[in-house]
Amino acid sequence: MSPPAAQPTATARRIAGLALPALVVLAAEPLYVLVDTAVVGHLGSVPLAAVAVGGTVMSFAVWFGTLMAYGSTGRAARRFGAGDRAAAVAEGVQASWLALTAGVVLAVLGVTFAGPLAGLLAGDPRTAEAAAGWLRIAALGAPGLLLAAAGNGWMRGVQDTRRPLWIVLGANVLSAILCPVLVYPAGLGLTGSAIANVTAQTVGGALFLLALIRETRALRPVPPIIVQQLVLGRDLLIRGAAFQACFLSATAVASRFGIAAVGAHQIALQLWFFAALALDAVAIAAQSMVGAALGASNTAEARDVARRVTVAGGIAAVLFAALAAAGSSVVPGWFTPDESVHAQAAVIWPWFVCLLPFAGVVYALDGVLIGAGDVAFLRTLTILSALLCFLPVIWLSYAFDWGLAGIWAGLGLFTVARFAGLTWRWRSPHWLIPGATR
Questions:
Q1: Is the distance from CB of 298 to CB of 372 less than 8 angstroms?
Q2: Angle at 135 between CA 134 and CA 136, to 5 degrees
Protein backbone atom coordinates (compact mmCIF):
# COMPACT_ATOMS: atom_id res chain seq x y z
CA MET A 1 0.00 0.00 0.00
CA SER A 2 1.27 3.46 -0.90
CA PRO A 3 1.66 6.27 1.64
CA PRO A 4 -1.46 8.38 2.22
CA ALA A 5 -2.29 10.52 -0.78
CA ALA A 6 -1.38 14.17 -0.39
CA GLN A 7 -4.57 16.17 -0.06
CA PRO A 8 -4.68 19.40 -2.07
CA THR A 9 -6.04 22.49 -0.37
CA ALA A 10 -9.82 22.80 -0.65
CA THR A 11 -9.70 25.84 -2.93
CA ALA A 12 -12.71 26.94 -4.94
CA ARG A 13 -10.89 25.73 -8.07
CA ARG A 14 -10.30 22.28 -6.59
CA ILE A 15 -13.90 21.91 -5.48
CA ALA A 16 -15.15 23.14 -8.85
CA GLY A 17 -12.86 20.68 -10.66
CA LEU A 18 -14.68 17.81 -8.96
CA ALA A 19 -18.11 19.42 -8.74
CA LEU A 20 -18.64 20.61 -12.31
CA PRO A 21 -18.29 17.19 -13.98
CA ALA A 22 -20.42 15.75 -11.17
CA LEU A 23 -23.02 18.46 -11.87
CA VAL A 24 -23.48 17.22 -15.43
CA VAL A 25 -23.76 13.62 -14.21
CA LEU A 26 -26.27 14.52 -11.51
CA ALA A 27 -28.31 16.80 -13.75
CA ALA A 28 -28.44 14.41 -16.73
CA GLU A 29 -30.98 11.99 -15.28
CA PRO A 30 -33.45 14.52 -13.81
CA LEU A 31 -33.05 16.67 -16.92
CA TYR A 32 -34.04 13.69 -19.02
CA VAL A 33 -37.01 13.11 -16.67
CA LEU A 34 -38.04 16.74 -17.20
CA VAL A 35 -37.81 16.25 -20.99
CA ASP A 36 -39.79 13.01 -20.67
CA THR A 37 -42.40 14.80 -18.53
CA ALA A 38 -42.71 17.58 -21.09
CA VAL A 39 -43.03 15.13 -24.00
CA VAL A 40 -45.62 12.98 -22.23
CA GLY A 41 -47.45 16.02 -20.83
CA HIS A 42 -48.47 17.01 -24.34
CA LEU A 43 -50.26 13.67 -24.71
CA GLY A 44 -52.77 14.83 -22.08
CA SER A 45 -53.32 15.01 -18.33
CA VAL A 46 -53.86 11.25 -17.87
CA PRO A 47 -50.49 10.23 -19.42
CA LEU A 48 -48.80 12.97 -17.36
CA ALA A 49 -50.38 11.65 -14.17
CA ALA A 50 -49.41 8.10 -15.20
CA VAL A 51 -45.75 9.08 -15.51
CA ALA A 52 -46.01 10.81 -12.11
CA VAL A 53 -47.23 7.58 -10.50
CA GLY A 54 -44.94 5.22 -12.43
CA GLY A 55 -41.95 7.52 -11.96
CA THR A 56 -42.57 7.60 -8.21
CA VAL A 57 -42.36 3.80 -8.09
CA MET A 58 -39.18 3.83 -10.21
CA SER A 59 -37.71 6.40 -7.84
CA PHE A 60 -37.29 3.46 -5.46
CA ALA A 61 -34.60 2.07 -7.78
CA VAL A 62 -33.07 5.54 -8.20
CA TRP A 63 -33.00 5.90 -4.42
CA PHE A 64 -31.33 2.50 -4.01
CA GLY A 65 -28.77 3.48 -6.63
CA THR A 66 -28.06 6.78 -4.87
CA LEU A 67 -27.44 4.91 -1.62
CA MET A 68 -25.07 2.57 -3.43
CA ALA A 69 -23.16 5.44 -5.03
CA TYR A 70 -22.91 7.42 -1.80
CA GLY A 71 -21.82 4.41 0.26
CA SER A 72 -19.13 3.30 -2.18
CA THR A 73 -17.88 6.88 -2.62
CA GLY A 74 -17.11 7.25 1.09
CA ARG A 75 -15.49 3.82 1.41
CA ALA A 76 -13.43 4.19 -1.77
CA ALA A 77 -12.40 7.75 -0.90
CA ARG A 78 -11.00 6.80 2.49
CA ARG A 79 -8.91 4.02 0.93
CA PHE A 80 -7.79 6.34 -1.85
CA GLY A 81 -6.80 8.98 0.71
CA ALA A 82 -4.81 6.34 2.61
CA GLY A 83 -2.85 5.62 -0.61
CA ASP A 84 -4.50 2.31 -1.59
CA ARG A 85 -6.13 2.85 -5.01
CA ALA A 86 -6.44 -0.89 -5.66
CA ALA A 87 -8.57 -1.29 -2.53
CA ALA A 88 -10.65 1.70 -3.61
CA VAL A 89 -11.35 0.07 -7.00
CA ALA A 90 -12.08 -3.25 -5.26
CA GLU A 91 -14.92 -1.47 -3.44
CA GLY A 92 -16.34 -0.69 -6.89
CA VAL A 93 -16.11 -4.32 -8.00
CA GLN A 94 -18.08 -5.57 -5.02
CA ALA A 95 -20.56 -2.70 -5.27
CA SER A 96 -21.17 -3.69 -8.91
CA TRP A 97 -21.97 -7.27 -7.95
CA LEU A 98 -24.38 -5.96 -5.35
CA ALA A 99 -25.88 -3.58 -7.91
CA LEU A 100 -26.45 -6.28 -10.52
CA THR A 101 -28.11 -8.61 -8.02
CA ALA A 102 -30.34 -5.90 -6.56
CA GLY A 103 -31.20 -4.58 -10.03
CA VAL A 104 -32.43 -7.96 -11.28
CA VAL A 105 -34.54 -8.39 -8.13
CA LEU A 106 -36.07 -4.92 -8.51
CA ALA A 107 -36.81 -5.53 -12.21
CA VAL A 108 -38.65 -8.78 -11.46
CA LEU A 109 -40.62 -7.17 -8.64
CA GLY A 110 -41.47 -4.14 -10.78
CA VAL A 111 -42.79 -6.20 -13.68
CA THR A 112 -44.72 -8.56 -11.39
CA PHE A 113 -46.36 -5.95 -9.16
CA ALA A 114 -46.75 -3.03 -11.57
CA GLY A 115 -50.56 -3.27 -11.53
CA PRO A 116 -51.07 -3.36 -7.74
CA LEU A 117 -48.49 -0.63 -7.12
CA ALA A 118 -50.03 1.71 -9.69
CA GLY A 119 -53.50 1.04 -8.32
CA LEU A 120 -52.33 1.82 -4.79
CA LEU A 121 -50.83 5.18 -5.72
CA ALA A 122 -53.28 6.40 -8.36
CA GLY A 123 -56.69 7.66 -7.34
CA ASP A 124 -58.07 7.43 -10.89
CA PRO A 125 -58.54 4.04 -12.69
CA ARG A 126 -57.40 5.46 -16.05
CA THR A 127 -54.21 6.77 -14.47
CA ALA A 128 -53.58 3.44 -12.72
CA GLU A 129 -53.93 1.44 -15.93
CA ALA A 130 -51.64 3.72 -17.91
CA ALA A 131 -49.05 3.86 -15.11
CA ALA A 132 -48.95 0.06 -14.83
CA GLY A 133 -48.24 -0.33 -18.54
CA TRP A 134 -45.42 2.23 -18.37
CA LEU A 135 -43.94 0.64 -15.25
CA ARG A 136 -43.83 -2.92 -16.65
CA ILE A 137 -41.37 -1.74 -19.29
CA ALA A 138 -39.48 0.88 -17.28
CA ALA A 139 -38.68 -1.61 -14.51
CA LEU A 140 -36.39 -3.51 -16.90
CA GLY A 141 -33.89 -0.66 -16.67
CA ALA A 142 -33.19 -1.27 -12.96
CA PRO A 143 -30.03 -3.45 -13.41
CA GLY A 144 -28.38 -0.87 -15.67
CA LEU A 145 -29.42 1.99 -13.41
CA LEU A 146 -27.83 0.37 -10.34
CA LEU A 147 -24.65 -0.64 -12.20
CA ALA A 148 -24.24 2.98 -13.26
CA ALA A 149 -24.72 4.11 -9.66
CA ALA A 150 -22.03 1.71 -8.40
CA GLY A 151 -19.67 2.91 -11.13
CA ASN A 152 -20.28 6.54 -10.23
CA GLY A 153 -19.56 5.75 -6.58
CA TRP A 154 -16.11 4.21 -6.86
CA MET A 155 -14.99 6.66 -9.57
CA ARG A 156 -15.94 9.60 -7.34
CA GLY A 157 -14.03 7.92 -4.52
CA VAL A 158 -10.80 8.00 -6.56
CA GLN A 159 -11.68 11.59 -7.59
CA ASP A 160 -12.36 10.69 -11.22
CA THR A 161 -15.47 12.63 -12.25
CA ARG A 162 -14.68 12.97 -15.95
CA ARG A 163 -15.37 9.41 -17.12
CA PRO A 164 -18.78 9.31 -15.41
CA LEU A 165 -19.56 12.61 -17.11
CA TRP A 166 -19.12 11.22 -20.64
CA ILE A 167 -20.84 7.92 -19.89
CA VAL A 168 -23.95 9.39 -18.27
CA LEU A 169 -24.19 12.30 -20.67
CA GLY A 170 -23.93 10.06 -23.72
CA ALA A 171 -26.56 7.59 -22.50
CA ASN A 172 -29.05 10.30 -21.59
CA VAL A 173 -28.58 12.29 -24.79
CA LEU A 174 -29.37 9.09 -26.71
CA SER A 175 -32.49 8.58 -24.64
CA ALA A 176 -33.58 12.22 -24.92
CA ILE A 177 -33.47 11.83 -28.70
CA LEU A 178 -35.32 8.51 -28.62
CA CYS A 179 -38.13 9.67 -26.31
CA PRO A 180 -39.93 12.18 -28.57
CA VAL A 181 -39.27 10.02 -31.63
CA LEU A 182 -40.79 6.92 -30.05
CA VAL A 183 -43.68 8.79 -28.42
CA TYR A 184 -44.82 10.76 -31.49
CA PRO A 185 -43.56 9.75 -34.98
CA ALA A 186 -43.36 6.08 -33.99
CA GLY A 187 -46.79 6.38 -32.33
CA LEU A 188 -45.84 4.40 -29.20
CA GLY A 189 -47.09 7.00 -26.70
CA LEU A 190 -46.29 6.11 -23.09
CA THR A 191 -44.65 2.86 -24.23
CA GLY A 192 -42.09 4.89 -26.18
CA SER A 193 -41.28 6.90 -23.05
CA ALA A 194 -40.63 3.72 -21.07
CA ILE A 195 -38.45 2.22 -23.82
CA ALA A 196 -36.33 5.37 -23.91
CA ASN A 197 -35.83 5.14 -20.14
CA VAL A 198 -34.71 1.53 -20.32
CA THR A 199 -32.34 2.30 -23.20
CA ALA A 200 -30.51 5.06 -21.30
CA GLN A 201 -30.19 3.01 -18.13
CA THR A 202 -28.98 -0.17 -19.84
CA VAL A 203 -26.43 1.59 -22.04
CA GLY A 204 -25.11 3.59 -19.08
CA GLY A 205 -24.76 0.52 -16.86
CA ALA A 206 -22.94 -1.42 -19.59
CA LEU A 207 -20.44 1.40 -20.13
CA PHE A 208 -19.64 1.67 -16.43
CA LEU A 209 -19.15 -2.09 -16.28
CA LEU A 210 -16.75 -1.93 -19.22
CA ALA A 211 -14.77 0.83 -17.47
CA LEU A 212 -14.45 -1.35 -14.36
CA ILE A 213 -13.24 -4.34 -16.40
CA ARG A 214 -10.55 -2.15 -17.96
CA GLU A 215 -9.45 -0.95 -14.50
CA THR A 216 -8.89 -4.31 -12.80
CA ARG A 217 -8.77 -8.06 -13.43
CA ALA A 218 -9.89 -8.87 -9.88
CA LEU A 219 -13.58 -9.16 -10.69
CA ARG A 220 -14.71 -12.05 -8.51
CA PRO A 221 -17.34 -11.39 -5.88
CA VAL A 222 -15.95 -11.29 -2.33
CA PRO A 223 -18.88 -11.93 0.01
CA PRO A 224 -17.23 -10.49 3.17
CA ILE A 225 -16.69 -7.12 1.46
CA ILE A 226 -20.22 -7.15 0.07
CA VAL A 227 -21.53 -7.88 3.56
CA GLN A 228 -19.47 -4.98 4.95
CA GLN A 229 -20.96 -2.69 2.32
CA LEU A 230 -24.45 -3.85 3.23
CA VAL A 231 -23.84 -3.37 6.95
CA LEU A 232 -22.27 0.06 6.54
CA GLY A 233 -24.97 1.04 4.08
CA ARG A 234 -27.71 0.07 6.52
CA ASP A 235 -28.12 3.58 7.91
CA LEU A 236 -28.24 5.09 4.41
CA LEU A 237 -30.87 2.51 3.51
CA ILE A 238 -33.04 3.39 6.50
CA ARG A 239 -32.54 7.10 5.83
CA GLY A 240 -33.52 6.60 2.21
CA ALA A 241 -36.59 4.59 3.26
CA ALA A 242 -37.77 7.62 5.23
CA PHE A 243 -37.44 9.77 2.11
CA GLN A 244 -39.33 7.23 0.04
CA ALA A 245 -42.15 6.99 2.58
CA CYS A 246 -42.50 10.77 2.47
CA PHE A 247 -42.53 11.19 -1.31
CA LEU A 248 -44.69 8.11 -1.97
CA SER A 249 -47.20 9.42 0.56
CA ALA A 250 -47.09 12.87 -1.03
CA THR A 251 -47.84 11.45 -4.49
CA ALA A 252 -50.61 9.22 -3.11
CA VAL A 253 -52.28 12.17 -1.37
CA ALA A 254 -51.83 14.47 -4.38
CA SER A 255 -53.54 11.81 -6.54
CA ARG A 256 -56.59 12.01 -4.26
CA PHE A 257 -56.91 15.72 -5.03
CA GLY A 258 -57.47 15.02 -8.75
CA ILE A 259 -55.58 14.56 -12.01
CA ALA A 260 -54.65 18.25 -12.28
CA ALA A 261 -53.24 18.26 -8.74
CA VAL A 262 -51.04 15.21 -9.23
CA GLY A 263 -49.87 16.55 -12.59
CA ALA A 264 -48.81 19.87 -11.00
CA HIS A 265 -47.21 17.98 -8.10
CA GLN A 266 -45.21 15.90 -10.62
CA ILE A 267 -43.92 19.01 -12.38
CA ALA A 268 -42.91 20.77 -9.15
CA LEU A 269 -41.45 17.62 -7.60
CA GLN A 270 -39.29 16.85 -10.63
CA LEU A 271 -38.06 20.46 -10.65
CA TRP A 272 -37.30 20.09 -6.93
CA PHE A 273 -35.35 16.86 -7.57
CA PHE A 274 -33.53 18.52 -10.46
CA ALA A 275 -32.50 21.49 -8.30
CA ALA A 276 -31.56 19.20 -5.40
CA LEU A 277 -29.33 16.98 -7.51
CA ALA A 278 -27.75 19.94 -9.23
CA LEU A 279 -26.99 21.48 -5.83
CA ASP A 280 -25.65 18.10 -4.76
CA ALA A 281 -22.77 18.44 -7.25
CA VAL A 282 -20.73 20.36 -4.67
CA ALA A 283 -21.73 17.79 -2.07
CA ILE A 284 -20.34 15.04 -4.32
CA ALA A 285 -17.01 16.86 -4.28
CA ALA A 286 -17.35 17.07 -0.50
CA GLN A 287 -17.91 13.31 -0.21
CA SER A 288 -14.76 12.60 -2.17
CA MET A 289 -12.56 15.28 -0.57
CA VAL A 290 -13.80 14.81 3.01
CA GLY A 291 -13.42 11.02 2.75
CA ALA A 292 -9.92 11.31 1.29
CA ALA A 293 -8.87 13.94 3.86
CA LEU A 294 -10.05 11.81 6.77
CA GLY A 295 -8.45 8.73 5.19
CA ALA A 296 -5.17 10.66 5.28
CA SER A 297 -5.97 11.74 8.89
CA ASN A 298 -6.18 15.41 7.87
CA THR A 299 -9.10 16.67 9.95
CA ALA A 300 -8.26 20.33 9.36
CA GLU A 301 -8.67 19.82 5.60
CA ALA A 302 -11.96 17.98 6.14
CA ARG A 303 -13.35 20.85 8.21
CA ASP A 304 -12.20 23.40 5.62
CA VAL A 305 -13.95 21.48 2.83
CA ALA A 306 -17.13 21.37 4.92
CA ARG A 307 -17.09 25.12 5.46
CA ARG A 308 -16.51 25.96 1.81
CA VAL A 309 -19.13 23.50 0.58
CA THR A 310 -21.76 24.87 2.94
CA VAL A 311 -21.23 28.42 1.72
CA ALA A 312 -21.21 27.33 -1.93
CA GLY A 313 -24.39 25.29 -1.49
CA GLY A 314 -26.25 28.22 0.06
CA ILE A 315 -25.20 30.66 -2.67
CA ALA A 316 -26.09 28.25 -5.48
CA ALA A 317 -29.51 27.60 -3.95
CA VAL A 318 -30.32 31.31 -3.75
CA LEU A 319 -29.53 31.60 -7.47
CA PHE A 320 -31.82 28.64 -8.22
CA ALA A 321 -34.59 30.23 -6.17
CA ALA A 322 -34.27 33.48 -8.10
CA LEU A 323 -34.55 31.63 -11.41
CA ALA A 324 -37.56 29.66 -10.18
CA ALA A 325 -39.31 32.83 -9.03
CA ALA A 326 -38.70 34.52 -12.38
CA GLY A 327 -40.13 31.54 -14.27
CA SER A 328 -43.24 31.00 -12.15
CA SER A 329 -45.66 32.03 -14.91
CA VAL A 330 -43.76 30.34 -17.73
CA VAL A 331 -42.21 27.05 -16.59
CA PRO A 332 -45.43 25.01 -16.01
CA GLY A 333 -46.40 25.69 -19.63
CA TRP A 334 -43.28 23.86 -20.79
CA PHE A 335 -44.75 20.63 -19.47
CA THR A 336 -48.43 20.80 -20.30
CA PRO A 337 -50.95 23.20 -21.91
CA ASP A 338 -53.62 22.18 -19.36
CA GLU A 339 -54.76 25.35 -17.53
CA SER A 340 -56.06 23.37 -14.57
CA VAL A 341 -52.56 21.99 -14.00
CA HIS A 342 -51.15 25.53 -14.26
CA ALA A 343 -53.58 26.72 -11.58
CA GLN A 344 -52.48 23.95 -9.21
CA ALA A 345 -48.80 24.69 -9.93
CA ALA A 346 -49.37 28.31 -8.86
CA VAL A 347 -50.35 27.00 -5.40
CA ILE A 348 -47.06 25.13 -5.07
CA TRP A 349 -44.65 27.71 -6.48
CA PRO A 350 -44.17 30.01 -3.45
CA TRP A 351 -43.26 26.99 -1.33
CA PHE A 352 -40.88 25.74 -4.00
CA VAL A 353 -39.02 29.06 -4.25
CA CYS A 354 -38.79 29.78 -0.51
CA LEU A 355 -37.50 26.31 0.42
CA LEU A 356 -34.65 26.19 -2.09
CA PRO A 357 -32.11 28.23 -0.07
CA PHE A 358 -32.56 25.95 2.94
CA ALA A 359 -32.26 22.90 0.69
CA GLY A 360 -28.94 24.12 -0.70
CA VAL A 361 -27.31 24.03 2.74
CA VAL A 362 -29.03 20.75 3.63
CA TYR A 363 -27.77 18.89 0.57
CA ALA A 364 -24.26 20.29 0.96
CA LEU A 365 -24.02 19.13 4.58
CA ASP A 366 -25.52 15.76 3.65
CA GLY A 367 -22.52 15.32 1.35
CA VAL A 368 -20.05 16.32 4.06
CA LEU A 369 -21.42 13.85 6.61
CA ILE A 370 -21.77 11.01 4.08
CA GLY A 371 -18.15 11.52 3.06
CA ALA A 372 -17.19 11.40 6.73
CA GLY A 373 -19.20 8.20 7.23
CA ASP A 374 -21.46 9.90 9.79
CA VAL A 375 -24.54 8.23 8.33
CA ALA A 376 -25.99 7.07 11.65
CA PHE A 377 -26.68 10.69 12.56
CA LEU A 378 -28.18 11.33 9.11
CA ARG A 379 -30.42 8.30 9.56
CA THR A 380 -31.77 9.43 12.92
CA LEU A 381 -32.28 13.04 11.87
CA THR A 382 -34.14 12.06 8.69
CA ILE A 383 -36.42 9.61 10.48
CA LEU A 384 -37.34 12.12 13.17
CA SER A 385 -37.93 14.86 10.61
CA ALA A 386 -40.15 12.55 8.56
CA LEU A 387 -42.17 11.19 11.49
CA LEU A 388 -42.61 14.49 13.30
CA CYS A 389 -42.92 16.91 10.36
CA PHE A 390 -43.47 15.62 6.82
CA LEU A 391 -45.80 12.63 7.22
CA PRO A 392 -48.21 14.09 9.80
CA VAL A 393 -48.77 17.26 7.76
CA ILE A 394 -49.27 15.29 4.52
CA TRP A 395 -51.96 13.07 5.97
CA LEU A 396 -53.60 15.97 7.80
CA SER A 397 -53.66 17.71 4.43
CA TYR A 398 -55.63 14.77 3.05
CA ALA A 399 -57.95 14.56 6.05
CA PHE A 400 -58.78 18.27 6.07
CA ASP A 401 -58.58 18.85 2.31
CA TRP A 402 -55.70 21.33 2.46
CA GLY A 403 -54.68 20.44 -1.09
CA LEU A 404 -51.20 20.83 -2.53
CA ALA A 405 -50.39 23.70 -0.15
CA GLY A 406 -50.65 21.28 2.76
CA ILE A 407 -48.39 18.73 1.06
CA TRP A 408 -45.70 21.32 0.38
CA ALA A 409 -46.00 22.74 3.89
CA GLY A 410 -45.04 19.26 5.07
CA LEU A 411 -42.01 19.32 2.79
CA GLY A 412 -41.14 22.74 4.21
CA LEU A 413 -41.18 21.56 7.82
CA PHE A 414 -39.14 18.49 6.83
CA THR A 415 -36.49 20.63 5.14
CA VAL A 416 -36.21 23.17 7.96
CA ALA A 417 -35.92 20.43 10.60
CA ARG A 418 -33.08 18.81 8.69
CA PHE A 419 -31.43 22.21 8.18
CA ALA A 420 -31.36 22.82 11.94
CA GLY A 421 -30.02 19.36 12.79
CA LEU A 422 -27.32 19.32 10.12
CA THR A 423 -26.09 22.82 11.01
CA TRP A 424 -25.69 21.78 14.64
CA ARG A 425 -23.79 18.62 13.67
CA TRP A 426 -21.51 20.50 11.27
CA ARG A 427 -20.43 22.86 14.05
CA SER A 428 -19.63 19.96 16.39
CA PRO A 429 -16.46 17.77 16.31
CA HIS A 430 -18.36 14.45 16.36
CA TRP A 431 -18.14 13.71 12.62
CA LEU A 432 -14.34 14.24 12.36
CA ILE A 433 -13.06 10.66 12.75
CA PRO A 434 -9.74 10.06 10.88
CA GLY A 435 -8.45 6.82 9.32
CA ALA A 436 -8.81 4.60 6.23
CA THR A 437 -11.97 3.03 7.68
CA ARG A 438 -14.66 4.10 10.05
A1: no
A2: 95
Three-state DSSP string of 170-214: HHHHHHHHHHHHHHCCCCCCHHHHHHHHHHHHHHHHHHHHHHHHH
Q: How many CB atoms lie within 10 A of CB 155?
A: 29
**Cα distances (angstroms) measured from residue 150 to each of 40, 99, 350, 363:** 30, 7, 36, 20
* 258 φψ region: left (φ > 0), alpha (ψ -120 to 50), beta (else): left
Q: How far does CA 100 lie from the centroid of its chain?
A: 19
Report how far residue 250's alpha carbon sits from residue 410's, in angstroms, rounded to the nearest whole number: 9
Cα gap 290→283, rounded to integer Å: 10
The conformation of residue 9, written as its DSSP 8-state character, comes to P
What is the distance between the alpha carbons of residues 43 and 430, in angstroms, rounded to a whole number? Answer: 52
Q: In terms of Cα–Cα distance, which of 349, 240, 265 is closest to 52?
A: 265
Give the model confidence (pLDDT) of 110-136 as tens digits.
Answer: 999 999 988 888 878 888 999 999 999
Q: Round to whole Å and give the CA distance between 85 and 218.
A: 13
Beta-carbon contacts of 425 under 8 Å, excluding residues fewer than 6 positions away, are 365, 369, 374, 377, 381, 431
pLDDT value for 10 = 61
Residue 237's pLDDT is 80
Query: Hey, what amino acid is at 94?
Result: Q
pLDDT at 175: 87
Rounded Cα distance between 324 and 422, Å, is 25
Report pLDDT digits (tens) over 176-228.
Answer: 899 999 999 988 989 999 999 899 899 999 999 999 999 888 899 988 888 87
Evaluate if residue 5 carries a pLDDT over 60.
Answer: no
Which range among 163-167, 277-281, 284-288 shows the weakest confidence by mean pLDDT? 277-281
Task: Please give the C-alpha separations between residue 402 and each of 64, 73, 328, 408, 410, in angstroms, as whole numbers.
Answer: 31, 41, 21, 10, 11
The whole-angstrom separation of Cα 278 and Cα 313 is 10
- Spans of all domains in the chain: 12-427
Residue 3 has pLDDT above 70, yes or no: no
Burial of 368 (0-12, 13-18, 19+ CB in 10 A): buried
